[in-house]
Write a structure and sequence with these properties.
Number of helices: 1
Oligomer: single chain
Distance between the termini: 36 Å
Order of helices and strands: EEEEEEEEEEH
Number of strands: 10
Length: 155
């Protein structure tokens, strides 16, 4: 699926529950993704978020069960609540410098996620952000910086 050049906003739930959607090309003209824009796109394997996007809103990619990789651009400053909730095939994420907030449940249930880079710019990680994830090399550091709640279900 190709979204035409010139589109600047992909609305709330625009592709929600498009279970057979395997790939999508988002043009650089897009600067905003709505809540749940790709929620439940179970066959979506990878996504490149355009550089102009500065905020990944709540549940944008929730339950994209086949999503293995995502490129988060340098301009993103915040990852919303449950943004990648239930993306059980997601293996690795690099969160760019400049991100300051990772919302509650942002990566909840991403059970394959074992490799993550969290920059020093992150000052807040919400409860349950990484529930179900396993980071043996950095878990202690993350708990000391942000508290045990980021790995626990608290809602």
């Amino acid at each position: 699926r190709v979204i035409p050049d010139g589109v600047t906003y992909i609305g709330n739930d625009a592709f929600s529950l498009c279970k057979s959607l395997r790939s999508v090309v988002i043009p650089d003209s897009v600067t905003s993704l709505g809540s749940g824009a790709f929620r439940g796109c179970e066959s979506l394997g990878s996504i490149v978020i355009p550089d102009g996007v500065t905020y990944i809103v709540d549940e944008t990619f929730a339950y994209c069960k086949s999503l293995r990789s995502v490129v988060i651009p340098d301009g993103v400053t915040s990852i919303g609540d449950h943004a990648f909730w239930g993306c059980e095939s997601l293996r690795s994420v690099v969160i760019p410098d400049g991100v300051t907030i990772i919302g509650s449940g942002a990566f909840l249930g991403c059970t394959s996620l074992t490799d993550i880079v969290i920059p020093d710019s992150v000052t807040l990680i919400g409860d349950s952000a990484f529930k179900g994830c396993y980071f043996p090399d950095i878990e202690h550091e993350l708990i000391s910086r942000f508290g045990e709640e980021i790995f626990e279900e608290t809602f």
